[in-house]
């Protein structure tokens, strides 16, 4: 879920603010290390759960991609 949120924020808002790419990357690094510490020291091992596919997540990512294309095309037209 966090990865989808970061993807959505980057795809939709980063073209308007190019520094957002750097901020999202640094945020991702901090989250990665925080999650690593959390899993290693504070929680038990996460048990893997088998799934057939990423059907719903793929649909959500495609919708976000289409919306970001529309907003990124509309940005130069509005200015």
Structure in words:
The chain is mainly alpha-helical. It has one domain (2-78). It has three helices and no strands. It has helices spanning 2-13, 19-42, 55-78. α1 packs antiparallel against α2 (19-42) and α1 runs parallel beside α3. The longest helix is centred in the middle third of the chain and has 24 residues, at 19-42. It is flat, with a radius of gyration of 16 Å. 0% of the residues are buried. The model has no long low-confidence stretch (mean pLDDT 82).
Q: In brief, what are we looking at here?
A:
This protein has helices at residues 2-13, 19-42, 55-78. With 79 residues, the chain is mainly α.
Which terms would index this structure?
single chain; mainly alpha; 79 residues; flat
Characterize the biggest β-sheet: none
Order of helices and strands: HHH
- Backbone shape: flat
**β content, as a range?**
under 5%
Total helix count? 3
Computed Rg: 16 Å
Q: What is the count of β-strands?
A: 0
Secondary structural class: mainly alpha
Helix content: over 70%
Give the mean pLDDT: 82
Total domains:
1
Distance between the termini: 33 Å
The parts where pLDDT drops under 50 for at least 5 residues are none
